[in-house]
Specification:
The chain has 306 residues and is of the alpha/beta class. It is 23% helix and 23% strand. The protein has 7 helices and 14 strands.
Length: 306
């Protein structure tokens, strides 16, 4: 089966429409409004994973009157697929912020209980500022473990970076030393996928859509030829290039936010009862053993095209 057939089969089996982007690990280019794949070196197999982000468990408000069930229904939809992803990653803001340490831990436990039934072979987590910035990640570490780590899968090297435990939104020198040491053991031509919460570049710093020392992180990543970054935080799909590094933001599962700088004040977009997806969603990322490219499919909550 060709990779394109695999991708179409996956979308058909999942019962989900979506806009599909081909993001080459060698970097992507925008041609005529589309993202075109470029080949990358390295050995990898055909597989796919899911990126879910910004679930904000514990949120209550008119921006999502169904907040108590959105995550639960998404877990059910994913589990109904006869083809399960190799893994699922949640890129931060698992829970909604609270000043009460006890409530914070309760929400994290409830979140873990909700996602525990996922059938994927493994599930990876990372914090968002709502989870970690008020206590420097103390509660997150108690319940989920280290906020930064790396792993290898089918020829790809994955790195999860923590740019939220520091309330200033920085990665910090200690973690950058860890990153440099981690990548030192990876061939510079091997594909690298970075998972983070905030954008590593200055998307819109006025809205806190940046990483304080993101430029230094990107300098480290540029020592490798084939890097792709997946992040959350901005509650909308966004695609950006810094040099040869492609950055892809994921939608939220609780409420969408406006485009960067499009309105004077950042605030959740109104709930749209006429929309089956309400501007929410998640994504699949499929890896091809043919050219080590990544194909991104943006998915809605209920199978409608987005």
């Amino acid at each position: 089966m060709s990779f394109d057939d695999h991708r179409r089969d996956f979308l058909k089996l999942l019962g989900l429409g979506g806009v599909v982007y081909a993001s080459g690990l060698a970097g992507v280019g925008r041609f005529g409004g589309a993202w075109a794949a470029q080949p990358a070196t390295g050995s990898s197999g055909d597989f796919f994973f899911l990126q879910l982000s910004d679930t904000h468990w514990g949120f209550q408000g008119p921006a999502n009157p169904d907040a108590a069930t959105t995550l639960k229904r998404t877990v059910e939809v994913i589990n109904q697929s006869p083809r399960q992803p190799d893994f699922i990653v949640f890129t931060g803001d698992l829970t909604h912020t609270t000043d009460d340490p006890a409530v914070r831990r309760t929400r994290m436990r409830e979140f873990k209980e909700i996602v525990a039934p996922l059938k994927a072979k493994s599930v990876h987590f990372m914090p968002g500022e709502h989870d970690a910035s008020l206590d420097a990640g103390e509660a997150y570490r108690e319940l989920f473990g280290a906020p930064n780590y790396s792993f290898d899968h089918q020829g790809l090297h994955f790195v999860a970076l923590d740019n939220v435990s520091d309330p200033k939104g920085a990665v910090g020198s200690k973690q950058m030393e860890w990153l440099a040491a981690d990548l030192a053991r990876v061939d510079r031509d091997a594909p690298v996928v970075v998972l983070t919460h905030r954008p590593l570049f200055d998307l819109y710093a006025q809205w806190d859509w940046a990483t304080a020392d993101g430029g230094k992180v990107i300098d480290i990543l540029q020592g490798h030829r084939h890097v792709t970054v997946f992040y959350g935080h901005i509650h909308q799909e966004n695609h950006h290039m810094t040099g040869d590094i492609a950055h892809h933001a994921a939608k939220s599962l609780v409420f969408p936010l406006p485009a960067p700088g499009s309105v004077p004040k950042r605030a959740p977009l109104p709930w749209d009862p006429a929309s089956p997806n309400h501007g929410l969603g998640y994504r699949s990322v499929a890896s091809s053993n043919k050219d080590a490219s990544l194909t991104i499919a943006e998915l809605g909550l209920n199978g409608a095209k987005v």
